[in-house]
Amino acid sequence: MIPIAMPLLAEDEADAARAAVLSGWVSQGPQVSAFERDFAVLVGAEHACAVSNCTTALHLALTALDIGAGDEVITASHSFIASANCIRYCGATPVFVDIDPDTYNIDPVKVAEAITPRTRAIIAIHQMGMPCDLAALGALANRHGVVLIEDAACAAGSQIRINGEWDRIGRPHGAIACFSFHPRKVITTGEGGMLTTADAELDRKFRLLRQHGMSVPDTVRHGSPKVIFEDYVVVGFNYRMTDIQASIGRKQLERLPELVSRRRALASRYTELLGNIEGLHLPFEPDWARSNWQSYCVRLPGRVEQRTVMQKLLDQGIATRRGIMCSHREAPYAGTVCLHDLRQSELAQDHAILLPLYAQMTEDDQVQVATALRAELGC
Ligand SMILES: *Cc1c(COP(=O)(O)O)cnc(C)c1O
Fold it and tell me: What count of other Cβ atoms lies within 10 Å of the Cβ of residue 12?
């Protein structure tokens, strides 16, 4: 069986988790702080704040910006549903715009058309790890006085060239970037998330909000020789990461550069193996982007049926997934008025499939996937 994905977790992570357990401090504590420092250094961010997952990171980002009822937030429908749900958690209105069919990322021209006086923020997704056009989106956000938030759930280790320099995603290039460490992403802590920002005040708010609005963290009280009484200054949440997760995350971060180069090699190999198939659309990487290839997505020729191809591959022991979902087609968003055409989003969901890609994948596995796909497409 060739699975769609597989995390790379080994003795290093197991040893780190064991050490955290035996340390006696298992909730948010010193390992979380160390993971935040390591992550900030790796992506070149001033501040990094760890949380329970990327959905809660996105919720905190919008909450810290005081986004709420009456506000509009522009994002892609063509994304995991968390990108839209976080907007609804705040009582704000998601405004969906279409994607560029080559990169599966939000189209800056469509974003510009969707801006209204109520627009407060843009949530730009680096879909499947492919950096979106941050130069265009950043300029647009500045011009209209709206905040750019990066949903970088899939993009740990991806890079973008901005002003002639290669930067890691997460520096961030908007106001805030949000990451996920779910096992389906390139590095994992089981569940986990991270917010990065250059704004010290936003970082302070994230730290307050992730811990019930508590004025003094328990780590500080624990270490204090004096009795300290804490206050609860805002309505916050429990969005903490645990020290067990963070200790695993630190080991995963050490692997990240190697994992990304391995995935990039696997992606180019797919591109070689799948070249010259009539009507098969291979993924496109702009020359200013270096994806971590969280997923390798191909769009099938119009003549073949997505489900049939996927089933035929599954019958041969090869797992695939259909194209990224569209939130506007799901029940919670059924009533959403989509003023903007989402045709490319729907076509991508209905005609794309994601192929298996993980660090442990062998040359034989890849050849098997490519051969099976070629056979299904009649070449
Ligand atoms: C996975 C994912 C999320 C949610 O991440 P969690 O850590 O599972 O909450 C959000 N946005 C996108 C684009 C994702 O792929």
Answer: 14
